[in-house]
Amino acid sequence: MRLTRREFDRVVQRAYRRIPAEIRRRMDNVVLTVRRRPDPDMLRQMGYRPGEPLLGLFEGASLAERSFFAPPPDQPDTIYIFQEPLEEMCRTTAELEREIEITVVHEVAHFLGIGEERLEELGYG
What we know:
3 strands, 6 helices, 46% helix, alpha+beta
């Protein structure tokens, strides 16, 4: 499956709207951005080999890592969604939308400190 960037962005928007409000409300200071593929530094950072599929990545400090006394970060927290690896694993737009939704929720979970048990309760296990 291959979509134009505009088509993929629309699928990302639909997937984002499907995420439970309990999670979306906590994303006020998180930027969601799309890239074609992760760069080599991102793969190394995550312990992935070149060419190994990485669907998404959270860059920033989780809420658990932050301190009241620390200054706010210089850059906003960012969730990257990687278009090509997601397209490669999906056959339909509906499947792609669901995979994007799952990927975003898992990356937000890293930010919020949501455990796997809660993700399963929400249907993302």
